[in-house]
From TrEMBL:
The lineage of its organism: unclassified sequences, metagenomes, ecological metagenomes. Residues 2-72 form the PAS domain. Gene3D superfamilies: PAS domain (3.30.450.20). SMART domains: PAS. NCBIfam families: sensory_box. Pfam families: PAS. This is PAS domain-containing protein. CDD domains: PAS (cd00130). One of its GO terms (biological process) is regulation of DNA-templated transcription. Residues 76-127 form the PAC domain.
Amino acid sequence: MSRQNYEELFTNTSDAVWVHDMENNITLANKACEKLTGYPVPELIGKNVSQFLAPEALALFRQAKERLLRGEAMEQRYEQQLNRKDGSKAIIHLATRLIVSDGKPQAFQNIARDITEERKLQDNLRFYLREC
């Protein structure tokens, strides 16, 4: 696969993909991040990831980062709550991996899938089943 193919895959995938550096600043983001957050990609670059996390989600974010830095594998996606530009909340399934170069941690790669609507449907179904 050529570099151009990889770039097209990154740009056009339906999942939000971004990279943030060791200080949590976004260095790379795809179009799906724009849809997820409400921010145009150029506005996302340089922003700190913590700006997008609900306060209760920051602790989970820090735990995931610490686990990866200790060398623990994170095979499972984990759920996070995200703040959008318009003030609404999104629920995402997030997979994060550490990017290492020359044996040193360099950045974190993140792949997120918006599950907000799916969660609302599940909650409505649970409510409906309890009421019946």
